[in-house]
Amino acid sequence: MAIVTDDIEIAVKKLQNGEVVAFPTETVYGLGANAFSGRKVRKIFELKGRPLFNPLIVHIASADYLDEIATSVPAVAKKLADLYWPGPLTLLLPKSRNIPDLVTAGMPTVAVRVPAHPVAKSLLEKLDFPLAAPSANKFTGISPTCAAHVAAAFSDQKLTILDGGHCKKGIESTIIGFKNETPILYRLGAIPIEDIEAITGNVEIMNQNKGVKPAAPGMMKKHYAPRTPLVLIKNIDQLGKVKFGKNAGVILFTDNVNVPAGFQCEILSRHADPEEACANLYAALHRLDNAQLDFVFAELLPETGLGVTINDRLRRAASNIL
Ligand code: TXA
Ligand code: MG
Predict the structure, then answer these.
(1) pLDDT digits over 213-271, tens only?
(2) Burial class (CB in 10 A: 0-12, 13-18, 19+), 146
(3) Quick check: 48 pLDDT over 50?
(4) How remote is the CA of residue 239 from the centroid of ligand 2, in Å?
(5) Ligand 1 atom with the shortest distance to the CA of 175
(6) How far is the CA of 237 from the centre of ligand 2 (A)?
(7) Spatial CB neighbours of 295, under 8 Å, sequence gap ≥ 6
(8) Of the candidates 130, 135, 241, 267, which lies 20 to 30 Å from 88 by C-alpha distance?
(9) How many CA atoms lie within 13 A of 127 on its CB side?
C-alpha cells in the first residue's frame, strides 16, 4: 500500500534510508532516489517497470550543484539555466563520474534540472544528494499531477508519497541537449520551443526514428497512454458522425456548444489558454480513463506554443485518429 504524507521529514528519512519516495514538482510527480547510488536508483526502475535503457533526470536544489553532476556546461546551456531554473527545463550535459551509469543508461550525458516546486526545493535542500527521478507513473502510463494519481498507480506497492498538491504546470519539462553550442530538442515540454528559440536561435529537433532505442524514450511512440482507447479528432463535427455505443468521453480544448449529447466531457481551458490546458490535461485523462468508457475522443489544439506539446502527448497516448 502506498502511504501519502505531507511531512517532508518523513520523506527525507526514507530517502536517507535508501528508499524510493514520490515527490511533487511543478511539472508532474517524480519517483525519487539518491542519484549518487546505483543500488538505490535500481529500485526506481523496478517499481516503475521501466526498461533499464531509459535514463532518468537528476534533480538538484540549485545550479550551484551542477559541478557535482556535469563536467562542463556549454555557454548556451548556462544562458538557458540562468533564465529558466528553477523551472521545467531539463538540460543534457556531459556526465560527471559521481553519476552511476544506471542513471544515464550508459549514456555519456546526464539529464539535469532544478525543479521550481517549493516542496521539491526544500526536500532537495535537506538532502546531501540529488534525486534521480522519472515521472511517478508505471511505464508508458499517464503521468501523475497529484498525489492521488501516484497512489492509484502504486496501490499494490510499498511507496511513500510526499503530497505537495496539484502540479501547477501539469506537463513534463522540455528537454534540451547540445551539439557543441547548438541546442537540440529531445522532448517537447512545459516551455514552448519558440521561447527557447527566441533566446538561442534555431533549435534542432532530435531525430526520433534513428536506431532501435529512442534517443529520449519520452519520444517513444506509445507513451502517456490511458487503458481506454483514445481517438484523436481534428474537428468536433466528427463526433456527430461516429457510432460508438453509449459510453464515450471527449477532451476538448475549450467550451463548444456543438458537443453531441451523451459524451462525458472534459474541458481543458474555458479561456482557451494552452497553459491552463497543460495543467488540466493529465487529470482529465486520468478521470476519463477511470470512468469505464469504451472510447475517449480528444480534440487537437492549434499547433502553436504549448498546443504543440499537448498535441505531442495526445498523439503518443492515442490509438487512432479520425
Ligand atoms: O518534468 C519532468 O521532466 C519530470 C519531473 C519528475 O522532473 N520527469 C520526467 O521524467 O518526465 P521521465 O523519466 O518520465 O522522462 C525523462 C525523459 C525520458 O524520456 C528519458 O529518456 C530522457 O528524459 N532522458 C533522460 N536522460 C537522458 C539522456 N542522457 N539523453 C537523452 N534523453 C534522456
Ligand atoms: Mg515519464
Answers:
(1) 455 555 556 677 899 999 999 888 888 877 656 689 999 999 988 888 889 999 999 99
(2) buried
(3) yes
(4) 30
(5) 23
(6) 33
(7) 228, 229, 230, 231, 244, 247, 248, 249
(8) 267
(9) 32
Higher-pLDDT residue of 222 and 274 is 274
- Give, using CA atoms, the residue closest to atom 22 of ligand 1: 216
Pocket test for ligand 1, best of 20, 45, 57 (most atoms within 8 A of CB): 57
**Minimum mean pLDDT among 19-28, 44-53, 255-264: which range?**
255-264
Question: What local confidence, expressed as pLDDT, does residue 216 receive?
Answer: 57
Ligand 1 interacting residues, C-beta cut-off 6 A = 25, 27-28, 30, 54-57, 88, 90, 92, 104, 107, 109-111, 133-135, 172-173, 175, 186-187, 215-218
Of the ligands numbered here, which is closest to the C-alpha atom of 115?
1
Residues in CB range of 268: below 8 A, 6 or more apart: 251, 252, 253, 254, 276, 277, 280, 281, 284, 310
On whether the CB atoms of residues 313 and 190 are closer than 8 A, the answer is no
Distance 224 CA to ligand 2 centre (A): 7
Ligand 1 centre distance from Cα of residue 134 (Å): 6
Domain annotation for the chain: domains and CATH numbers: 3-205 (3.90.870.10), 230-321 (3.40.50.11030)
pLDDT tens, residue by residue, 156-214: 999 999 999 999 999 999 999 999 999 999 999 999 999 999 999 999 998 765 443 45
95 Cα to the center of ligand 1, angstroms? 15
